[in-house]
Amino acid sequence: MAESSQSHHNSSVAEHEKFMRRSLELAVHGRGKTLSNPMVGCVIVWNNTIIGEGFHSRFGAPHAEVEAIRSVQNPKLLKESRLYVTLEPCSHFGKTPPCANLIIEKEIPEAIIAMRDPNPVVTGNGIQKLQEAGVRVTVGILEPEARNLNKSFIHFHETGKPYVVLKWARTLDGIMGRAKDDHGSRQISSEVSALFVHKLRSELMGIVVGSKTLQLDNPQLTNRLWPGSDPVKFYLGKSKSDRDDVIRMTSISELFAYCQNKNITGLLIEGGSETLQSFLQSGEWNEAFEIEAPVRWENGIKAPEMKRNNSEIFQLGNDLIRHYYN
Ligand code: AOF
Ligand code: ZN
Predict the structure, then answer these.
(1) Domain ranges (residues) in the chain
(2) Is 59 in the pocket of ligand 1 (CB under 6 A)?
(3) CB 91, CB 112: distance < 8 Å
(4) Residue of 15, 17, 25, 65 marked catalytic
(5) Do 27 and 142 meet the contact criterion of CB atoms below 8 Å apart?
(6) Any atom of ligand 1 within 6 Å of the Cβ of 117
(7) Taking 50 as the threshold, does the pLDDT of residue 322 lie above it?
(8) Is pLDDT of 8 > 70?
(9) Residue 220 to residues 158, 169, 215, 233, 320: CA-CA distances in angstroms?
(10) 27, 73, 129, 305: least buried by Cβ within 10 Å?
């Protein structure tokens, strides 16, 4: 149930959910573009009708509330409107002035918020600021959906660690790579799966491979098949590389400390086998995608064996993808 600071509001939870759902949809338009910021959507409702919509479109751009308020044709109506937003309005002077101040300034009497901002510079302060100015505040409408939208952002601020997603491809017989002296094709998964992987790369700020993979495959590690900016590239290992676009990290803890320092909220770990095993064994992972292609290689480097049940399977092209949560 949603908690409300006052009990006399006359909108039902179902109505709140309808407008919050639209706000969540708007937020999705920022996917892959807002990092290290969250995706946020906002609608302004007057007389049960949406009169303004906005979302945070990219890192450094105006916040969702600013866009939604700006889009209202008749600003006089703001004084009689409700504002729905998927994240607590900010209270800090960042790249933009605080959204809470703008709401107060425009005399919007009611704000419905899906979840508190986990960012320590904001958390609770935005809500408090609104309440102190007499804005009626409701928190917790579609909170699970809102949390699901910004998993890395939330995990990063709640734990101080990046959200870690593992990904590898395997053959039917459990092989993930060729031996060093085997010059056969290295590509296991299909072109369609490559699109999926590039989408993942656009949604996580950093990408990690092992030093052997970097040397043997010389991967580009970009998301050229999907919109959004390229991830920050890392490799794990002690050996040197002549690639100056890939940052060397000697351990997971060094990598995590770097991420915390640079606001890198999520990492995609793409292998090879030793790198994936080190994350699996340390337990320092959140999700995994195992792409299985309908081919047999008979010998080569063995793929990690997952010792738990997948949450779902889906197909892409000829491949089957298993999705795991830690
Ligand atoms: C909001 N609405 O649409 C977003 C918020 O550097 P800045 O000024 O862009 O601030 C970034 C922080 O503001 C971000 O880490 C998160 O706490 C919050 N994001 N807040 O009121 C928005 N994107
Ligand atoms: Zn803001």
Answers:
(1) 2-150, 160-325
(2) no
(3) no
(4) 65
(5) no
(6) yes
(7) yes
(8) no
(9) 32, 17, 12, 9, 24
(10) 73
Q: Are 155 and 161 in contact (CB under 8 A)?
A: yes
Q: Does 5 score more than 50 pLDDT?
A: no
CATH code assigned to 2-150 = 3.40.140.10
Q: Which tokens is 213 given?
A: 């993979």
For residue 315, give the nearest of 227, 223, 196 by alpha carbon.
196
Q: Return the best residue to mutate from 87, 155, 205 for the ligand 1 pocket (most ligand atoms within 8 A of CB).
A: 87
Taking a C-beta distance cutoff of 8 angstroms, is the pair 54, 66 a contact? yes
Kindly report, residue by residue over 258-291, the tens digit of the pLDDT: 999 999 999 999 989 999 999 999 999 999 999 9
SS3 content of the chain, % helix, strand, coil (to 5): 30, 25, 45
Question: For residue 1, what pLDDT is reported?
Answer: 44
* 208 phi/psi in degrees, rounded to 5: -130, 135
In the structure, ligand 2 is a single-atom ion and the residues with CB under 5 Å from it are 63, 90, 99
**What one-character DSSP code corresponds to residue 308?**
S
| pLDDT tens digits, one per residue of 141-158 | 999 999 999 999 999 999
Q: How far apart are alpha carbons 178 and 233 in whole angstroms?
A: 23
Among 59-68, 89-98, 180-189, the range of highest mean pLDDT: 59-68
- Residue 27 has a pLDDT of 98
pLDDT value, residue 9: 52
Tell me the average pLDDT across 12-37. 96
Same fold, 2-150 and 160-325: no
CB 262 within 8 A of CB 201: no
Our answer to whether residue 107 is catalytic in this structure is: no
The two beta strands, 319-325 and 287-293, are antiparallel
